Amino acid sequence: MCCILKQSTMSIIGFENSEYKRREILNMASIKCPECGTEISDDVGKCINCGCPIAKCESIYTKKASKNKVPIAFVIVLLAVAICGYFGVNKYKSYVYQQKLNSIIYIIIDSGAEAEECGNLIHSVWYNAIFYVSNTDTDKYTKTNGCFNDDFNDSLDNLYKSKYFTEKISDIQCDQDKVLSLMKELNNPPPKYKEAYKNLIVLYNEYIDFSNIVINPEGSLQSFTEKFNEKDGSFVNSYDKMKLYID
């Protein structure tokens, strides 16, 4: 009878001890064995299922964590580089646009000055041929063998056939092509150049109208002179507005 009680007591004690251990294990932090996947306590020396050393488990978990962790400093540097790159690209685009804007304005002004010079010469030849005015700059066009031409159209013909004037007109036409090409490149300005581009369109149109009068003169001497002076004034006014945008 004593033996039975002793055994029962031992069984109860054993049960309580195993239950205590079970609860203690449950309360412990657990990790998964990387070899077999069994959940084990982080306090044990090795996996209870496959025998994998716990130190190896911790090493593996540490490596995995370090691989997945992105350093904050790296993120900050990457973000800073991206921001600097964005502003750097925009600054470069603005610089390129400004250079092209400067270029087109200079071409228009130089070509406009050449058109003005040609227009004044056309007027002088036309006027002197009609009113028989001698002038060292126009006599080569208005006179033949020292005498004035009977028809002023012959004098204008002589002017437009001369090598000097032909090259002048050819230069103006080439400039028109260059300006048109640059206008196409400038048609999508950065925000800070929106206003400049609007004024540039006005200058471009005035330049084309003004230079075309010289390339293809029409009408009478009076109508030509009036139109030439009008467009010359509009062209100069447009240029004055564009001076603000030259850098």
Report on this model:
- The chain has 247 residues and is mainly alpha-helical.
- Helices cover 74% and strands 4% of the residues.
- A two-stranded antiparallel sheet has the order 1-2.
- β3 (143-144) and β4 (147-148) form a beta hairpin.
- Mean pLDDT is 82; it is low at 1-16.
Summarize the structure.
The protein has 247 residues and is mainly alpha-helical.
Strand order of the largest sheet: 1-2
Secondary structure category: mainly alpha
Instruction: Indicate the percent of residues in helices.
Output: over 70%
Give the termini separation: 114 Å
**Rounded radius of gyration (Å):** 46 Å
Largest sheet: 2 strands, antiparallel
DSSP strand (E) fraction? under 5%
Number of helix segments? Answer: 8
Sketch the topology as an H/E string, one letter per element: HEEHHHEEHHHH
Q: So what's the overall shape?
A: rod-shaped
Tell me how many strands there are: 4
Average predicted local confidence, pLDDT: 82
Q: Which segments are poorly predicted (pLDDT under 50) over 5 or more consecutive residues?
A: 1-16
Question: How would the blueprint of this fold be written?
Answer:
Blueprint: H1 2-27, E1 30-32, E2 39-41, H2 54-68, H3 72-131, H4 139-142, E3 143-144, E4 147-148, H5 152-161, H6 163-185, H7 194-215, H8 221-242
Question: What brief labels describe this structure?
Answer:
single chain, mainly alpha, 74% helix, disordered N terminus, two-stranded antiparallel ribbon, 247 residues
